[in-house]
Amino acid sequence: MRTPLWPPVNPALGFVAPALLLIALFFVLPVAAGLVLSFTDFDIYALGDLDRLRWIGFDNYRRLWNDPLVGRALGNTLYFTLVGGPLSVLCSLGAALLMTRPGLPGAAVWRTALFLPVVTSLVAVAVVWRYLYHPLYGALNHLMAWTGFEPIDWLGDARTGMPAILLLAVWKNFGFNMVIFIAGLQSIPARLYEAAALDGAGRWAQFRHVTLPMLAPTLAFVAIVTLIGHLQVFAEPYVMTQGGPADATLTVALLMYREGFRWWKLGYASALALMLFALILIGTGLQTWLRRRGARS
Fold first, then answer.
1. What is the pLDDT of residue 2?
2. Other beta carbons less than 10 A from residue 250's beta carbon
3. Any idea what the CATH number is for the domain that residue 170 is in?
4. Does residue 4 fall inside a structural domain?
5. Could you give the count of Cα atoms lying within 13 Å of 80 in the half-sphere of its Cβ?
6. Mean pLDDT for all residues in the chain
7. Phi, psi (degrees; rounded to nearest 5) at 40
8. Residues 6+ apart with CB under 8 A from 58
9. Count of C-beta atoms within a 10 Å radius of residue 41
10. Would 115 be classed as within a structural domain?
């Protein structure tokens, strides 16, 4: 028998090769290009003449460390994530528990209605909510005036700008997590609840000792997805406030957009993108570590 010139190729490689090629082309290559650009002063002048491109080392990262605007954007992003993330998860879990209650009339209709904001255009929703928050004509201030409260400039006040955007984000996104929680709740065997009821466990005890432990993998997935989404918040402040007032709603992603596509400081914007990537990586890794530690204990 002749010895083959080439070693045999695993047929499975042919099936995954297109997906791997797309991942390399649209994920690995842009990330690598962004990493390289973060060590340069790439700007609009370098677009016209590459001879103007200079290698500046860690200067962009030193600027990140010393730029107070970056600290403000990072603080706003962490506030949005640490407050809005748990609030979104809790609302999603509460809605899922209500939607899976036996004998709930019109459960399918309610699930559809609660999921509709997820499939609605975020820009359209943000524009509508901006009018709801209007200090003179907004429905929210009309409701407050009817109940005896003074109207509030929700998006024009630095104290209420971020909470107003946070409320919109929770309303817009919690339906997606609700559907995931419903799937997780429906996968819990009914016999576990029957056994707990026979042992005298009430609803709270069943939720604490049956629902939460069985729902832990789903909860971990929802928490990680919510963390990643909230750290990348961009469209809501961009459409509703443009980062104002006084940068009170400026986020890291919005600042990255400003630097890269308004001022054409693409090297500095790439450094911001790498900082956000590292932040997401650290947050995801921390949640995964806490989940595994909890599972072992």
1. 60
2. 25
3. 1.10.3720.10
4. no
5. 33
6. 87
7. -125, 175
8. 39
9. 18
10. yes
Give residues with Cβ within 8 angstroms of 154, minimum separation 6. 133, 135, 138, 140, 141, 160, 161, 164
- 26 inside domain: no
Output Rg (C-alpha) for the chain, integer angstroms.
24
* CA–CA distance, 77 with 234 (Å, rounded to integer): 10
Q: How many domains does the chain have?
A: 1
For the stretch 176-197, pLDDT in tens is 999 999 999 999 888 998 898 8
Name beta bridge partners: 43.
265
- Note down the domain range covering 233: 81-250
pLDDT greater than 60 at residue 1: no
pTM: 0.86
- Say whether 265 sits in a helix, a strand or coil: strand
Task: State residue 9's pLDDT score.
Answer: 63
Domain assignment present for residue 11? The answer is no
- The residue ranking higher by pLDDT, 236 or 9, is 236
- For residue 82, pLDDT beyond 90: yes
C-alpha distances out from residue 266 to 49, 72, 86, 173, 234, Å: 14, 20, 33, 31, 18
End-to-end C-alpha distance for the chain, whole angstroms: 58
Helices (H) and strands (E) in the chain, counts: 16, 0
Per-residue confidence band for 279, with pLDDT thresholds at 50, 70 and 90? very high
Q: Considering all CA atoms of the chain, what is the largest pairwise distance in Å, rounded to the nearest integer?
A: 94
Pick the closest to residue 46 from 266, 246, 290, 258 (CA basis).
Answer: 266
pLDDT tens digits along 4-31: 555 666 777 778 888 889 999 998 998 8
Structure tokens at 58: 């860690």
